[in-house]
Amino acid sequence: MMLSLDWSFFSWDLFSNYVWKGLKYSLLLTLIATVGGVFFGTLLALMRLSGKKWLDLPATIYVNGMRSIPLVMVILWFFLLMPMIIGKPIGAETSAIITFVAFEAAYFSEIMRAGIQSIPRGQVFAGQAMGMTYSQNMRLVVLPQAFRNMLPVLLTQTIILFQDTSLVYAIGAYDMLKGFDIAGKNFGRPVESYLAAAITYFVLCYALSWFVKRLHKKIAIIR
Amino acid sequence: MSWDWQVFCQDTITQEVGQSCFGKNGDITYLDWMLSAWGWTVSVSLLSLLIALILGAIIGTLRTLPDRPWIVRLGNAWVELFRNIPLLVQVFVWYHVIPAIFPALKRVDGFVLVVFAIGLFTSARIAEQVRSGIQALPRGQRYAGMAVGFTTFQTYRYVLLPMAFRIIIPPLTSETMNVFKNSSVAFAVSVAELTMFAMQAQEETARGVEVYLAVTALYVFSAFVVNRIMTFIEKRSRVPGLIAASGGGH
């Protein structure tokens, strides 16, 4: 026995009133978390590869700690602690942005670490032979190549990150899922609304992963 | 900031601190509640993992069948479908959409639906690992099976799968740990697991830091136990003669 779905309530107006605001936030969160996560993740990766124990140890503890806690718990932690640290409430949306940068840094750091380790040793020696300092060598020789080698993996992680933004539901931030959630409740059509959410996420993520797959092939030929 | 660990000895209704930290005569303390929530987390995780392993193994294997392009395409579609929708959205689909389409499922408990949601989500990821495990084997292994007169089924049963499963244990370890972490999305449909407990106990007692610390510790402890068990299995099932034989747990 199939229930007939009623899509008549689903209009452009509804999309622009409820979903669009959430989609914009989801994309913004993804963008900031990717840029911030790659930046701090690279710093963490450099700390872990520095060979100095006082840099390596805290970075390792941070990365492994973040990776062993569910993201929902991390979101709740920051939502609880941020107002205590700053001394005033900052709102779910801002809290989620800080959380995602901190959380994704741990994941991106593992990708960047693998990327740096994939560069042949000779490249580092060549840089040293030219008289480059450690930071010049990293900045001009190693990191650009590591970044390019890891680009498909970084983008795949970004797709996962975009999917994970839906978890801000736990603190009530207004992302795309929340938009569909509220629309479904207001129009008494939760079934169609959640289905529409699933389809929208699928289309966006499938398109992105198709793009990453093509990019991967392109980069594979260059190497 | 001061600590107040007594919050776990409080009764959940009267908020009074009891003598033993475990409730008596049917009353429950926050400690009782948290341990029961941990039980739900472990139950959701293990049952989801069971579904994911069975489905993932079948679909991953089907995706490597020679001369069966449509079965391979179907398997690929399965993986793409479950990989490109956020887990939380899938949980909502299982909870709100599927019972509406199939009224027979209306009376099924939310716990069961969440187990299926996480199980199928994870099955796509395990199918991907099983496929790459089989494809990583040298082509000669398949030919060897054919050469001794095995059918395709026998080649998989006696040659390819035993090898493939042993070499994919490290990624399976991380996937198992992911299932434990992913079980936290069950809060969204009111399964009384650890995250749900954390949110409600935080609200009721206003001792969020203590509650979250305890819950986080339980998640980390669970992940650690899973890691130890999988490392043990990995050691016992190691394929002699491979470079990976000296590798670590993950």
From TrEMBL, chain A:
Coarse class of the protein's main subcellular location: membrane
One cellular-component annotation, GO: ATP-binding cassette (ABC) transporter complex
Q: Which SUPFAM superfamilies match?
A: MetI-like (SSF161098)
Record's keyword annotation contains Transmembrane: yes
Tell where it localizes.
Cell inner membrane; Cell membrane
Statement: the UniProt record of this protein carries the keyword Nucleus? no
Keyword set, alphabetical order: Amino-acid transport, Cell membrane, Membrane, Transmembrane, Transmembrane helix, Transport
**GO annotation terms (biological process):** amino acid transport
One GO MF term on file is: transmembrane transporter activity
Question: Matching PROSITE patterns, A to Z?
Answer: ABC_TM1 (PS50928)
**InterPro entries membership:** AA_ABC_transptr_permease_3TM (IPR010065), ArtM/GltK/GlnP/TcyL/YhdX-like (IPR043429), MetI-like (IPR000515), MetI-like_sf (IPR035906)
What stretches pass through the bilayer? 25-47, 68-86, 92-109, 153-174, 194-212
- Which superkingdom does the taxonomy of this entry point to? Bacteria
PANTHER family, alphabetically? GLUTAMATE_ASPARTATE IMPORT PERMEASE PROTEIN GLTK, MEMBRANE COMPONENT OF AMINO ACID ABC TRANSPORTER
Q: How does it assemble?
A: The complex is composed of two ATP-binding proteins (GltL), two transmembrane proteins (GltJ and GltK) and a solute-binding protein (GltI).
Q: What does this protein do?
A: Part of the ABC transporter complex GltIJKL involved in glutamate and aspartate uptake. Probably responsible for the translocation of the substrate across the membrane.
Protein's UniProt name: Glutamate/aspartate import permease protein GltK
Q: Which organism is it from?
A: Diaphorobacter ruginosibacter
TrEMBL record, chain B:
- GO annotations of cellular component type: ATP-binding cassette (ABC) transporter complex
- Membrane-traversing stretches: 37-60, 81-102, 108-127, 147-169, 211-230
Topology relative to the lipid bilayer, per the entry, is:
Multi-pass membrane protein
Q: What is the designated name of this protein?
A: Amino acid ABC transporter permease
Domain ABC transmembrane type-1 spans what residues?
38-230
Query: What lineage does UniProt assign to this protein's organism?
Result: Bacteria, Pseudomonadati, Pseudomonadota, Betaproteobacteria, Burkholderiales
Q: Where can this protein be found?
A: Cell inner membrane; Cell membrane
Report the family membership.
Belongs to the binding-protein-dependent transport system permease family. HisMQ subfamily.
SUPFAM superfamilies per record: MetI-like
